[in-house]
């Protein structure tokens, strides 16, 4: 259509040409709509070049004052369209991405520039066509094209300045790291919306009392990592070359919070002690992955973390395991009453997500309406906090939305202050959800072991396995009321948990087995001492050397925007 429209305009067929051109160009704009948001520059180049030539029709057949300027404007427009891919690549240059290093001054991208440029480039052909048929002076044509050209020049100049600053920063990094003198590094590779993996450990690692930094591999999650590491230095190392370049000589240990494939890129440095922390202690398959065997040390919360590997045929030498407790449970309030009045109780419903694989498909979301409905039928207040990955599956996302609508309708009808949506998933931390509840309904996930610290009743949803096999595969189930998610079983379990609670004693026993036998007053020290030992750091710290002062210009608007997501608070694993 672009060719037909342009030929009609050039041949002098004014009205049919304008109609066909406008219809065709409208379709082209729809296909290039990402440009309006600053993405997709360089899309559909051939069609857009043909559309850009169309405004020459009025110059040929109607005559314009200062026609040379109009022709120049069209030539500039065509060149700008053809050069969009180059502008996109230049703007996309990342270079060194770092935060929290005082000595580094980095120029950040200006997303607004490419957004504005994309919009100008979409509007300019229409503006030139209108200028032609309204007989505007050719100098106006030239002015409009020059504005677009100036915008492209500004983007390219900014990209050049960023590249120069990045190269200078790269040259400085070895000296900067030497000045920091880090004892350990936290190595993190994960997709977007996984920042809770990192965020749950950073506050505790800071209490070890020695300098460290975070090495992030995935460019898409860098901004979210910045949002949770606070004042800890962080480096983005996308390639093996940057990993090698930014490995400080002072390092004694490396900590990992997942079993990402690219962990092997750093484990190969044998002079370091490599410690796997994982991002939650549960009976799920990732908590006994054979991949964990490649690390020098495996920190587990309690004896259950050791036995779990052996029970699933994964051999890891005993000397690799270190029981350190689960520092994230510090601050969880203990149960205060032996019995509950369900009409005056709060149920925390924390379903997990669908999982990447069948062996991790533990989610109770398909039964969410029954579970929530039964809790409401018993007069309970409900805190509903879905896993941040749940919305990846449209069917699961729809069910979760229906559950929120059910809670909203009940709140309007009864006045019960249910908590759901952003209030539960972003404004409240997982610990605050624990403390605000009297009992929990959950799936197989790390929140179950964490909630065990409170000694409050737990309903565990069996996703459809044989009950005997389920209890054998997930030993923690022995301390919970196992239900299939039906209203009948959920209702019966709620009533049992609220009255005689026969599993109260079992929960107290399992608490030690899963979370370690450490005094409440000094519970976190089990982890801090072990972390300090592998980092060759004194314990307790000799002096307050952490955290360092954050550079004022590191967290730019770009990074803050990138860090925003549906899961800024720590979600259930």
UniProtKB/TrEMBL annotation:
Pfam families: Glyphos_transf. InterPro entries: Glycerophosphate_synth, TagF_C. GO terms for molecular function: CDP-glycerol glycerophosphotransferase activity. Keywords: Membrane, Transferase, Transmembrane, Transmembrane helix. GO terms for cellular component: membrane. Gene3D superfamilies: 3.40.50.12580. It comes from the Bacteria. The chain crosses the membrane at residues 59-81, 116-134, 140-161. This is Glycosyl transferase.
């Amino acid at each position: 259509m672009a060719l037909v429209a342009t030929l009609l305009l050039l041949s002098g067929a004014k009205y049919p040409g304008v109609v066909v051109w406008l219809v065709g160009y409208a379709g082209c704009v729809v296909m290039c709509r990402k440009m309006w948001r600053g993405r997709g520059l360089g899309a559909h180049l051939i069609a857009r070049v043909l559309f850009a030539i169309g405004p020459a029709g009025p110059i040929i057949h109607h005559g314009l004052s200062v026609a040379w300027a109009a022709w120049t404007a069209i030539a500039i427009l065509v060149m700008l369209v053809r050069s969009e891919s180059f502008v996109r690549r230049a703007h996309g240059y990342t270079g060194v991405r770092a935060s929290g290093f005082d000595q580094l001054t980095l120029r950040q991208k200006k997303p607004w520039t490419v957004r504005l440029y994309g919009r100008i480039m979409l509007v300019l052909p229409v503006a030139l066509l209108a200028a032609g048929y309204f007989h505007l002076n050719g100098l106006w044509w030239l002015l409009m094209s020059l504005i677009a050209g100036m915008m492209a020049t500004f983007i390219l100049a900014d990209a050049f300045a960023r590249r120069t600053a990045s190269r200078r920063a790269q040259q400085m990094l070895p000296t900067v790291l030497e000045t920091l003198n880090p004892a350990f590094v936290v190595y993190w590779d994960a997709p977007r919306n996984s920042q809770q993996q990192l965020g749950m450990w950073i506050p505790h690692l800071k209490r070890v009392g020695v300098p460290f930094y975070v090495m992030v591999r995935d460019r898409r999650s860098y901004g979210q990592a910045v949002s949770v590491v606070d004042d800890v230095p962080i480096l983005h190392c996308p390639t093996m070359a940057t990993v090698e370049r930014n490995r400080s000589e002072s390092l004694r240990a490396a900590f990992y919070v997942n079993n990402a494939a690219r962990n092997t890129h750093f484990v190969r440095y044998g002079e370091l002690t490599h410690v796997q922390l994982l991002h939650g202690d549960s009976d799920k398959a990732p908590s006994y992955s054979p991949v964990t065997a490649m690390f020098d040390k495996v920190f587990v919360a309690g004896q259950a973390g050791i036995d779990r590997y052996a029970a699933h045929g994964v051999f890891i030498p005993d000397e690799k395991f270190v029981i350190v407790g689960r520092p994230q449970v510090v601050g969880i309030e203990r149960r205060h009453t032996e019995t509950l009045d369900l009409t005056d109780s709060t149920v925390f419903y924390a379903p997990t997500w669908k999982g990447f694989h069948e062996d991790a498909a533990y989610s109770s979301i398909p039964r969410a309406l029954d579970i929530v409905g039964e809790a409401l039928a018993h007069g309970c207040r409900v805190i509903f906090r879905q896993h941040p990955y749940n919305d990846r599956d449209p069917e699961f996302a729809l069910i979760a939305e229906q559950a929120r609508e059910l809670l909203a309708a009940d709140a309007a009808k009864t006045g019960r202050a249910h908590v759901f949506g952003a209030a539960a998933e972003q404004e409240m931390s997982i610990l605050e959800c624990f403390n605000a509840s009297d009992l929990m309904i959950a799936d197989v996930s790390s929140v179950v072991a964490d909630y065990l610290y409170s000694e409050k009743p737990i309903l565990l949803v069996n996703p459809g396995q044989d009950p005997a096999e389920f209890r054998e595969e997930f030993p923690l189930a022995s301390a919970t009321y196992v239900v299939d998610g039906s209203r009948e079983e959920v209702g019966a379990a709620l009533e049992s948990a609220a009255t005689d609670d026969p599993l109260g004693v079992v929960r107290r026993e399992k608490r030690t087995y899963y979370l370690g036998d450490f005094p409440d007053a000094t519970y976190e020290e089990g982890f801090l001492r072990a972390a300090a030992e592998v980092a060759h750091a004194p314990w307790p710290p000799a002096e307050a050397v952490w955290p360092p002062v954050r550079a004022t210009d590191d967290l730019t608007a770009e990074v803050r925007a990138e860090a925003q997501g549906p899961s800024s608070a720590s979600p259930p694993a």
